[in-house]
Amino acid sequence: MQDHNHLPQSSLAHLIDKNIDWAAHVQAKSPDFFNRLAHQQTPEYMWIGCADSRVPANELIGVLPGEVFVHRNVANLIVHSDLNSLSAMQYAVDVLKVKHIIVCGHYGCGGVKSVLDNQRAGLVDNWLRHIHDTKIKFTKLMAKATDHEAQFKRLCELNVLEQVHNACQSTVVQDAWARGQSLTVHSWIYNLADGLIKPLGLEVNSIEGLIAQYEQILLKMRAE
Ligand code: CO
Q: Is residue 18 domain-shared with residue 124, that is, in the same domain?
């Protein structure tokens, strides 16, 4: 029999301690906070972002727990056959009734860089293959970027646009629009160097809007 009085202390005690401090701080500021959140969540936003430790969703947009429903994976990908991201989107849209899906990539993304530089990292390369497809799809546009830095930035941006496109083409978003649910999908990119988010211009709330805006943004990129 295991004696629960003699379980070893967590080797991450410093993090548990920080959590105790944080909970006390929040409780002091807003005594009803946890009680309220324990009973319901009604976020208006869903965030789909990179798992990168430097891109924490809530902090970047200054919102508290309960305000944004978050899905993160390596390089913020929305893959048509990935049940994880699709399920998260479906729950957010159908059950939580979020009004906005924010796809937020970031400059300096390691996943994008490994694709750009044809590096190998292991199993994750199979996941990142989707960015390879984007790179190939936009070969001409990528060639217009003259140096490595410009190409890196461009591929980070194109990756966001493609994921917004994928999100909008999903049955989840298509069905929401078909039944008249208010839902906008946003394309954002975060700059690690200054902490600022830049909208990339694709902000879609209908399938017609997607087609028109997607073409327009690509035309603009080609004209740069
Ligand atoms: Co990243």
A: no
Examine the domain organization and report whether 78 and 22 are in the same domain: no
CA separation (Å) from 223 to 121, 140, 145? Answer: 35, 12, 12
Whether residue 95 has pLDDT greater than 80: yes
Residue 52 designated active-site: yes
d(CA 129, CA 1): 48
Residue 28 Cα to ligand 1 midpoint, Å, equals: 35
pLDDT surpassing 80 at residue 3: no
Say whether 106 is catalytic.
yes
- Give the distance (Å) from ligand 1 centre to CA of residue 193: 14
Spot the catalytic one: 71, 100, 106, 186. Answer: 106
Our answer to whether residue 156 is catalytic in this structure is no
How many A from CA of 156 to the centre of ligand 1? 9
In this predicted model, what pLDDT tens digit does every residue of 165-198 receive, in sequence order?
Answer: 999 999 999 999 999 999 999 999 999 999 999 9
The answer on 154 and 49 residing in a single domain is: yes
User: What's the total number of domains in the chain?
Assistant: 2
User: How many degrees, rounded to 5, is the angle at CA 158 between CA 198 and CA 168?
Assistant: 85
Q: Give residue 81's domain range.
A: 43-223
Q: Which of 18-27, 35-44, 186-195 comes out lowest in average pLDDT?
A: 35-44
CATH number for the domain that contains residue 132: 3.40.1050.10
Q: Cα(89) to centroid of ligand 1, in Å? A: 20
Confidence of residue 224 (pLDDT cuts 50, 70, 90): confident
Which pairing describes strands 196-204 and 45-50: parallel, antiparallel, or unpaired?
unpaired
